[in-house]
Amino acid sequence: MKKILIVEDDLTFCLMLRTWLGKQGFAVESAPTVGDAKQKMGATNYDIILSDLRLPDDDGINLLKWAKDRKISTPFIILTSYAKIQSAVECMKIGAKDYIPKPIKPELLFEKMDEVLKQQEAEKNKASKKGSTYITGNSLAIKRLFEMINRVAATEMTVFISGEPGTGKKQVAKLIHEKSARKDKPFIIVHCGEIPKEDFEKRLFGFISPQKEEPGLLTSATNGVIFFENVDEMPIKVQEQLLFSLKVKRIKMVGSNAEKEINVRVIASSSENIYKLIRENKFSEDFHRFLNEVSLQVPSLRERSEDIALFAESFLEEANEELEKKIIGFDEESMRIMNKCQWSGNLRQMKSVIKRAAMLCEEKYIKANHLPDEIIGETGDTSENAALHNEEYEKRKIMKALEACNNNKSKAAIMLKIDRKTLYNKMKHYNME
Fold it and tell me: Which of 152, 223, 309, 328 maximizes the CB count within 10 A of its CB?
């Protein structure tokens, strides 16, 4: 049964909406103020929010902005008078899915809701497909990881995910959530590196002031999963406060002495050496012990070279769709380079490289000259013939080396890791003398 939240202070109109929607099989709740709506949105995962613009304590636009800031993806449909249609259009620019002018016609409301629900389902299926593709593969390393994901997803244990940047730690966390009993509940991501240290406590626990009440991210994750991305960026003082709250399953909002129960599953990730940070007193050992009930290591792309072609084709498919291209695949040379590349930035780097190559490509196949220098230079092949294998790349490297060495060929040869005679032969080949 789909859940709907109506944010509306006109009690008569709200009752009418609840009656209409209830007859259509929806589970309906209402909130007369923005503050009430925030509390309900923090505790429940709704399928649609129907919100008026003018509310007693705040503006509906601010409720939409608040939801967007907290990564709450529930679609909004704005209810507005004809006089406020321009404001509704502004809401759509911010992220609202649609608006309906008052007086509301039931058939139009149901039509709009049906469109939004279908779109939401399609986006969810698309995101799920992409999320799974991002970390699947045939290598032994990834098969072992998937076995652990399936095992841990069936439990309520806390999970600590480690691995190099760009390996797909967030996708692993999402997959655990999608395979768990909490899959229909919120999945709240806390980007620890993006929150100012002075705001961390308020963002996590929420706060109460004379002017307003702001539920925190822990409240938003109620009955679901909270994922601390780059948890090493969390201030150690907040780590200690959070550890206590997670152990007792109760929180206090900043500015309040009242306690509130929480029920969340915790997953955390880091690209750093946590044990080193613990030794340097930059990370709480007790907090790490709590998070590390189960430890998962996401392999680097270097450790799963068998999967490179699979990812390349998957990312090309995404790039074709996004850029409206019809590139068939990769030629032999470009695939040779990608297979030899060290991929220091892992899957994130590969996705970016292939999207850029697809943008440049006007042919049926991506070729070596569509790949950036950084990739060709990351092949790890230092032999004389391989160091300058691709002609386009080779010529650019020679020009850059000569420019950096003020045309001193001996120094340029050393920089290029070839002998001076080879450099002269290459320059003659490219008519660079």
Answer: 152
List Cα–Cα distances, 202 to 90, 195, 236, 242, 257, in angstroms: 28, 10, 15, 12, 14
Judged by phi (left if over 0) then psi (alpha if -120 to 50, else beta), residue 162 lies in: beta
Q: State pTM to two decimals.
A: 0.69
CA distances in angstroms from 21 to 7, 17, 77, 199, listed in the order given: 14, 6, 14, 39
Report if residue 433 sits inside a domain.
yes
Higher pLDDT among residues 203 and 387, named by residue: 203
Concatenating the DSSP letter of every residue in 181-238 gives TTTTS-EEEEEGGGS-GGGHHHHHHEEE-SS-EEE-HHHHTTTSEEEEETGGGS-HHH
Q: Is 138 part of any domain?
A: no
Q: What is the DSSP letter of 261?
A: E
Query: Are residues 49 and 164 located together in one domain of the fold?
Result: no
- In angstroms, the CA 311 to CA 308 distance is 5
- Distance separating the N- and C-terminal Cα atoms of the chain: 75
Token reading at 414 = 């050393």
CA-atom Rg of the chain in angstroms: 27
In-domain check, residue 134? no
Q: Which residue is listed with tokens 């040379």?
A: 333
Does residue 322 lie in a domain region?
yes
The 3-state secondary structure of 276-311, one letter per residue: HHHHCCCCCHHHHHHHCCEEEECCCHHHHHHHHHHH
Range of the domain at 431: 388-433
Q: Are residues 358 and 427 in the same domain?
A: no
Per-residue pLDDT tens digits for 159-192: 999 999 999 999 999 999 999 999 988 899 999 9
Tell me, yes or no, whether 96 and 50 share the same domain: yes
pLDDT tier, 83 (very low <50, low <70, confident <90, very high otherwise): low
Q: Are residues 117 and 178 in the same domain?
A: no
Span 377-428, pLDDT tens digits:
666 544 444 444 456 667 777 887 888 888 888 888 888 888 888 888 888 8
Of the ranges 18-22, 136-140, 189-193, 342-346, which one carries the lowest mean pLDDT score?
136-140
